[in-house]
Every structure is written in structure tokens, then in C-alpha cells.
Design brief:
Layout lengths: L5 H9 L2 E6 L7 H12 L2 E4 L8 E5 L6 E6 L3 E5 L2 H17 L6 E5 L3 E7 L7 H14 L3 E5 L1 E2 L2 E2 L17 H13 L3 E8 L4 H4 L6 E5 L5 E8 L4 H15 L7 E5 L19 H17 L4 E5 L17 E4 L10 H6 L4 E3 L6 E3 L11 H6 L5 E2 L3 E2 L8 E9 L8 H15 L4 E3 L1
Parallel strand pairs: 1-2, 1-3, 3-5, 7-8, 7-21, 8-11, 11-14, 14-15, 15-16, 16-17, 17-21, 18-21
Antiparallel strand pairs: 4-5, 4-6, 6-22, 9-10, 12-13, 19-20
Helix pairs in contact: 1-3, 2-3, 4-5, 4-11, 7-8
Length: about 425
């Protein structure tokens, strides 16, 4: 394996126009490659018919499997087995040109199937134009999923025809969301919609206090919990399902739907909640299973957070239809990752020690760094330094860089995009094995 000399690297980086020869099988990629090179690198791409005049040649190699090969000599040769891997190869090259890095020869084999950015637009409004910018940076660094967390205690950010009174002052219209979905698809990125219930629902329950869970502390009156759904109230459950129903109709192209299930109540003091004092954990899991079944019946794979299940080493009735987004083990009562793996669940790595970008560094979090992402974290390292053993690594579907807007005023949209872009670069270090 050989790499290009520094002169060749700077030559490609400094050229205003990049000359590309694409084999006929990949000509459909011209438009989006041109668009992104102009948007992200401010470089004009010229597609030519004579390979001998090209700076970059992209050719078809059917024996490669979800892999692209870069060979560097007088010209840069990218070999790919499909239009998508040809696009990914050109984007990888764009990363190196943008960074002014030495472009190395190698076989780039995908090792992280799902490469996710999660964005909390519930707590902080992001405009459509800023979301498009995030998608463009994701395409550059090889991400393929954007999880849109649009419902939170302090905001609900997508237009609702069923419940217009629930929607925050700043929101995205359904027309804007459809445009976002189309642009994401154009960049080979899927959207994962995310409505968190039965906790994190303060915005949704503001106008419906009758559907709030109640708590009775010693020597105190019964009071409502503004953020928690009364999961034993049939009307309250029907309300939650009708919300999912409205947004499943909007996100018809999505494969996953995240249904939340985190930070609902203090499970270690479940006796304080009158409706849950008897069999509360089973009631909670029954609610989650009901939502999961509802979502699955419409063709989505439901996903849930990990923190409420298999606590204290107990068994769980959680349906096997869900996938687990494992984010934390900050309490000793929370089940280790191995419990979910042994039970046969597929998991996604949301390691909060390394992959959480929490605005204002709220709740004891510190901002992640490129160095930590590149050199201290790896895809099988889960929260609290839990390592997934070799025999379970096929159950790890991917990993996510998560932006949580706990203190929305701490950063502007522009600042978040600038910092997130740097973190994407560090995170993408783990996307391919280079042979």
C-alpha cells in the first residue's frame, strides 16, 4: 500500500476545479457529488469523458462488498461496488481535501452499519436551513441516520393538526419536515422520528392535567407530575397513541421510530405513585409494549432507551420487538449492556460518557472532544466503560453522536453546527476499517 506525496495532496486541495471520470454505472451520482463539493468545499467539479485527463477516476468493481478502494498514483482511483459506495468514496475524498490531509491508498470496509446523529429540537428550535446544513455535513462524514427528537418537557416542534395547542411558538411545519425528509434521502440519510413517552411529556400534558401521573409523598397531599403520563388511564394512553399515529403518517419513509421510555419515575420508590404501587413495573412495561406493538403494526421498528428495564437484576416483560438505544448506567440499579445482549436484543451505542454533547454542560456532562472520540472511544465501548465481548458484537447495530439542548441558550445554532461538524470528523474515524 502506498500513499501520495505531500505535493500531490496540496495539488488536489488547492485546485479550484476537480476533474472526475465516472464510469457509466455511476453517472447518476453526478448531481449530488457536484452539489456537495460546491456546498462544502467550494470546489467546482468537472465530469469528463476521457479518463487520461482526470484527476479522479471512479470505476465499478463488482467483487467489492459495501467497500470502496482508493488507490493513489498520478491520478486518484476510487473503485466501488455500487452507486452508494461510489458516493461514499467521493465524500471520503472530500473530507481529506477539506482537511488538507494526505490522501492514503486503502480498502475502506464499513464496520459501523448505522452512523447516527441525534438532535434535540424539542428543547431548542432549529430552522430548516440549519437542519439542511447538518445533513450536508453528515453526508460529508458518512453518517446515514438523523434522529429527530422533537418532543420534550419544554417544547414540541412539529406542526400538529390533531393537537395544535401543544405545538411550541417556534416549530417546523409538516411541509418543512417533508422537505427535510426528501433532502435527507437525496443524501442517503434516513430520518428516525423520536417522541418520548411516558416521561418527558410536560409540553404535551400542559393542557391535559387529567392525564398526568400523581404522586403521594409522606405527610403531603397527592400532586401531579407535570412530565409523566398516567399510564393506567385509558384516555391518557389513547392520547399518546393518537400522537404516534399522526407522526407515523408523516414519517412513512422511516424504518425506525424511537418511542422513548426513559426517566419516567423513580422506580426505587414506586410505592409513592398511587396508580403504580401495585405491579407498577409490569404496568409500565405493558404501556411500552402497547406503544411498541402499535408502532410495529405500521411497519416501524420501535426503539427505547435502556435505563428503565431489567433494573436490579430483575426479569423484564419488555417485548423483543424493540431495539435498545443504550445510553447510560449512571445508577448501579440500571442493567448492564450484557443483560440486553443475553436477552437477544439488538443495541445501538449512545455512550453518554463520550457521545453526549449537552448544551451548557448540564447534569454534570462535559463537552466531548475530537481526541476522546478518536482515541478513547470505540464502537463496542458502552457507557461506564462496558465492553461488548466479541461473541455479541453482531448485536451492536451502530452508534450515535447525541446533541441534547438542556440549556438551549448556551449555544447558537451556528455554534452547534460548527462544533458538531468537528465531532462528526472525530466520530467518523471509526466508520471504516482500512486494509
Amino acid at each position: 500500500m502506498h500513499s501520495m506525496d505531500a505535493n500531490k495532496t496540496s495539488f488536489v486541495s488547492e485546485m479550484n476545479e476537480v476533474r472526475v471520470f465516472l464510469v457509466e454505472a455511476f453517472v447518476g451520482e453526478k448531481e449530488r457529488i457536484t452539489h456537495l463539493y460546491m456546498q462544502l468545499l467550494e470546489k467546482q467539479i468537472c465530469f469528463i469523458d476521457k479518463p487520461e485527463l482526470a484527476t479522479i477516476i471512479v470505476k465499478n468493481s463488482s467483487e467489492l462488498n459495501d467497500t470502496f478502494v482508493i488507490e493513489v498514483a498520478e491520478t486518484i482511483m476510487i473503485s466501488a461496488d455500487s452507486s452508494l459506495t461510489a458516493f461514499r468514496g467521493m465524500m471520503y475524498l472530500a473530507q481529506q481535501i477539506k482537511a488538507g490531509s494526505e490522501i492514503k491508498s486503502g480498502k475502506f470496509r464499513e464496520v459501523l452499519t448505522e452512523r447516527i446523529v441525534m438532535l434535540d429540537i424539542g428543547r431548542k428550535y432549529f430552522s430548516l436551513s440549519k437542519l439542511r446544513q447538518i445533513l450536508e455535513q453528515m453526508a460529508l462524514y458518512g453518517f446515514n441516520f438523523l434522529q429527530v427528537h422533537f418532543s420534550e418537557n419544554t417544547g414540541f416542534r412539529i406542526e400538529s393538526e390533531k393537537y395544535p395547542e401543544l405545538v411550541s411558538e417556534n416549530f417546523l411545519t409538516k411541509k418543512e419536515i417533508k422537505a427535510l425528509i426528501r433532502y435527507a434521502a437525496y443524501l442517503s440519510i434516513e430520518i428516525i422520528p423520536d417522541i418520548d413517552t411516558p416521561g418527558h411529556m410536560e409540553q404535551l400534558l400542559k393542557t391535559h392535567p387529567q392525564w398526568q401521573l400523581t404522586i403521594k409523598k409522606p405527610q403531603e397531599e397527592i400532586t401531579n407530575i407535570p412530565s409523566a403520563l398516567a399510564i393506567t388511564n385509558e384516555e391518557a394512553v389513547a392520547f399518546a397513541l393518537s400522537l404516534y399515529d399522526e407522526y407515523m403518517a408523516l414519517f412513512t419513509d422511516s424504518r425506525y421510530f424511537h418511542i422513548g421510555a426513559d426517566e419516567f419515575i423513580d422506580f426505587d420508590q414506586i410505592e409513592l405513585y398511587p396508580s403504580l404501587a401495585d405491579g407498577g413495573i409490569t404496568k409500565f412495561e405493558s404501556y411500552v409494549n402497547t406503544v411498541a406493538k402499535f408502532v410495529k403494526a405500521r411497519g416501524f421498528v420501535p426503539r427505547v432507551w435502556n435505563d428503565a428495564f431489567f433494573r436490579n437484576g430483575k426479569t423484564s416483560t419488555l417485548t423483543k420487538a424493540v431495539e435498545i438505544t443504550y445510553w447510560t448506567k449512571w445508577q448501579k440499579e440500571m442493567a448492564p449492556i450484557q443483560t440486553f445482549l443475553d436477552a437477544g436484543y439488538s443495541v445501538v451505542n449512545f455512550n453518554d460518557n463520550y457521545l453526549y454533547y449537552v448544551l451548557g454542560e448540564n447534569a454534570g456532562y462535559t463537552y466531548p472532544t475530537v481526541e476522546k472520540l478518536k482515541y478513547l472511544w470505540q464502537p463496542n465501548l458502552f457507557s461506564s466503560e462496558q465492553q461488548v465481548p466479541l461473541q455479541n458484537q453482531k448485536q451492536v447495530k451502530g452508534a450515535a453522536l447525541a446533541v441534547w439542548c438542556d440549556k438551549p441558550e448556551a449555544k447558537t445554532e451556528k455554534e452547534i453546527i460548527e462544533e458538531l461538524t468537528k465531532l462528526m470528523e472525530g466520530f467518523s474515524f471509526h466508520f471504516h476499517k482500512i486494509d
